[in-house]
Amino acid sequence: MAIFSYLSPVFIAVICILIAVILQNKRNNQKEKKGKEKKKVESRPWVDEDLQDGTEVPADEEGKDEYQDIDEEDIEHIPFTPRRYDEQYMVKRSKEFYEVLNQRRSVRFISSEPVPREVIDNIVRAAGTSPSGAHTEPWTFVVVHDPEVKHKIREIIEEEEEINYRKRMGDKWVNDLKRLRTNWIKEYLDTAPYLILIFKQIYGILSSDRKKTHYYNEISVSIACGILLAAIQYAGLVTVTTTPLNCGPRLRVLLERPTNEKLLMLLPVGYPSKDATVPNLKRKPLDEIMVAI
């Protein structure tokens, strides 16, 4: 009896601990379930979380950040009558277009020779014909011609790129780039007559300060960038695709862009310099990039 009287407090303590653990696990499971439900409700698969620049909506906009997609009137549908070519001419045109684009190279030696502004306007117009999710057109093309602003952009990018090469990118990435002879020095940011910075609008802003959903905004803007590259090549100019790692926030502030815009790509545009060189790269043949079923 003395043993049982001694163990009773111990048993009671153990039972209390077990009850507390069970209750705590139950609470945790309820919180986890609620979190999953909330995450499921807030999930927006068309919003790419990559390339976020760390900026947030200012605190004074809290409470105004709900998405409000206003139903618009039905869009009128009109007859579509595109130009049609006979098969022989269509083959000829498709081959000629391929041959023009097959000459496209990433050129890092760009001349300061002036380029007509109308040409730049037209290639941006061409990029603006890109398809987009629900026709939200979630892109902003910032064209920089001012030498002082171009130099500030270069300073920001080179400062971050040196850190990228020395610390962030890792040995494998840096070694893979060695054969292309690239580094953090970007002289073309000064010499190119134009810089085009492409921003993706992760959401639109309505007149009521509410957000408008921009479906698949990164895919849409990426397609527009592809069309822009083709237009640059077709016009007889050159560029090099630049994705300034960790530069987005500072460049956004420099160019006075709103918080709903995130930098996706930067393209210096101009003529190649007289002493321009490019790596002697080969493209994969058709049978390695296409599967016919």
Automatic annotation (TrEMBL):
A biological-process GO annotation: tyrosine metabolic process
Biased composition (Basic and acidic residues): 30-47
Nitroreductase domain ranges (all copies): 102-271
EC number: 1.21.1.1
Alphabetic keyword roster: Flavoprotein, FMN, Membrane, Oxidoreductase, Transmembrane, Transmembrane helix
UniProt GO MF annotations: iodotyrosine deiodinase activity
Positions of region (Disordered): 30-68
A Pfam short name: Nitroreductase
Cofactors (names): FMN
Transmembrane regions listed in the UniProt entry: 6-23, 215-237
Gene3D superfamilies, per database record: NADH Oxidase
Biased composition range(s): Acidic residues: 48-68
GO cellular component terms listed in the entry, alphabetical order: plasma membrane
Catalyzed chemical reaction(s): iodide + L-tyrosine + NADP(+) = 3-iodo-L-tyrosine + NADPH; 3-iodo-L-tyrosine + iodide + NADP(+) = 3,5-diiodo-L-tyrosine + NADPH + H(+); L-tyrosine + chloride + NADP(+) = 3-chloro-L-tyrosine + NADPH; bromide + L-tyrosine + NADP(+) = 3-bromo-L-tyrosine + NADPH
Family: Belongs to the nitroreductase family.
Protein name: iodotyrosine deiodinase
Species whose genome carries this gene: Pyxicephalus adspersus (African bullfrog)
Upper classification of the organism: Eukaryota, Metazoa, Chordata, Craniata, Vertebrata
